[in-house]
UniProtKB/TrEMBL annotation:
SUPFAM superfamilies, A to Z: KorB DNA-binding domain-like (SSF109709)
Lineage start: Bacteria, Pseudomonadati, Pseudomonadota, Alphaproteobacteria, Rhodobacterales
Species of the source: Cypionkella aquatica
Name of the featured protein: Uncharacterized protein
Span list, region Disordered: 20-39
Amino acid sequence: MTKPDDTIRVLIPLTVRKKNGRPKIMPPADYRPSDDQTQDPHVLRAIGRAWGWRRRMEAGDFATIQELAEAIGLAERHVSRQLRLAYLAPEVLKRLTCGREPSTVTLYDLCRLSGETWQEQTERAHG
């Protein structure tokens, strides 16, 4: 056991890099996530939010993306980009939400993929 006045120093080899103007903590190059890791919670949350927005727009709560963005207090551009996630191919959505292996596809990649055909989305989102 340690004494109350002892100091324990833990070294975690992380690096900080800027990504899109924001600092991002990067793990060591040899880091491998555990086998039981699930999907990225940010991606899952964004997909759920996009589907909620889509349902509200289809129900007639909002006529335009601008109205939706104002109501939820987010930028119209952000809402427009994120709303695209509700139109991803069913196979891609299934892999992202039900798959057991962590996906290497980022949220940004998914938003860009949404403009392609479902077959192209499925092929490119395989990463």
